[in-house]
Design a protein that fits this description.
Layout lengths: L46 E3 L23 E4 L22 E4 L5
Parallel strand pairs: 1-2, 2-3
């Protein structure tokens, strides 16, 4: 399964609650939130709480948050990803990212 969320393309979007999404069977998160806060869209996501997610099947997190320039805080605590194989450029161009919460060893 693959999620490729492009919700920001709907126009002005200041907040989004994806905290209760069931992603337990999703393997590919590649580019999921890529480009939020860029590409001329008026999304202003500064905080994203994904702490309730259980991405146990995740294999690819590449470019997941690529270009999320206004994202300041990201909570990935309690993630367990025993099948993760790549997370290349996961946070590339996240110039505003100040704080992340995550487990010590996500694998």
């Amino acid at each position: 399964a693959k999620y490729n969320v492009r919700a920001y393309q709907t126009g002005v979007l200041e907040t989004v609650d994806v905290s209760q999404w069931d992603v337990s069977n999703v393997q590919i998160f590649n580019g999921m939130f890529s480009g939020v806060n860029s590409n001329g869209f008026d999304a202003t996501w500064e905080y994203l709480d994904l702490s309730n997610w259980e991405p146990d099947s995740a294999t690819d997190l590449s470019y997941m948050f690529y270009g999320c320039a206004q994202l300041k805080e990201l909570d990935l605590s309690d993630w367990n990803m025993p099948n993760l194989t790549t997370c290349s450029h996961m946070f590339a161009d996240c110039s505003g990212l100040i704080s992340t919460s995550s487990s010590e060893d996500p694998r």
